[in-house]
Amino acid sequence: xxxxxxxxxxxxxxxxxxxxxxxxxxxxxxxxxxxxxxxxxxxxxxxxxxxxxxxxxxxxxxxxxxxxxxxxxxxxxxxxxxxxxxxxxxxxxxxxxxxxxxxxxxxxxxxxxxxxxxxxxxxxxxxxxxxxxxxxxxxxxxxxxxxxxxxxxxxxxxxxxxxxxxxxxxxxxxxxxxxxxxxxxxxxxxxxxxxxxxxxxxxxxxxxxxxxxxxxxxxxxxxxxxxxxxxxxxxxxxxxxxxxxxxxxxxxxxxxxxxxxxxxxxxxxxxxxxxxxxxxxxxxxxxxxxxxxxxxxxxxxxxxxxxxxxxxxxxxxxxxxxxxxxxxxxxxxxxxxxxxxxxx
Length: 344
Fold this sequence. Notes:
11% strand; disordered C terminus; six-stranded mixed beta sheet; alpha/beta; 14 helices; two-stranded antiparallel sheet
């Protein structure tokens, strides 16, 4: 499966310090370095200049300028277009998003590109009208401004990212990494996304609906103390697991476990378990020829009917359709080949 080309908009000279540099680095890291042992071909990355002039000195307060191989014309024909951010003045001072960028985004979308924004990049997609009538998000510090300036956009400030099919938006900073890994998961499957996340030493999958806010009042040791319990649960997903049982293993009350897991992951213990089981099922469907009934059993989702129910509800496809979508995601083993991969 060819994941196609990814065009990343370089929208401004990068200051120091600058969050924009971090968000620009995310798609470069995820899509820019070939991972041929995971998927071949990998993505074709192109950086597209949104207005800098080669040879110019960096603007006041900027640490350096970036020279790119493409201008805005590079957006047209790309399979995916990513806008990591817009200049701060476009958000804080109401400066218009450059019309050349707006026009190029519209043209790329009309040509069939999948449009993606990270953090304040949503302002560019909104200015192009690509978010009208759609649900979208941005960093929670800027969602009120986004909603006020673009009332046709259904802004959701409580999620990490929103997938509207051909248009996707994320909150700021690490949520942009979650969205980019989500794109890899969509394009190349859970096995590839999980392995890439492991190489980047980040969580394999945080669902888009997870909250942006983490309760920082919880002591830092709480998340660490939960680590062994959560690791144990991942290793025993095929067994009946309850909040009460996990609480006993963690030597805390069920109420305390619920509070700590929500603080650490932004979701409830039961939803966390469901997410882990779905991830295990996805990996098994991609990397083995096990019958659907066995996949349901090993992932802890139960019968084939229950597995199908959760796949349709959470992913929008049946297990069979999901397996057919990723025939080359990983070397297959048969049901007699021993223990399946953990899917972590």
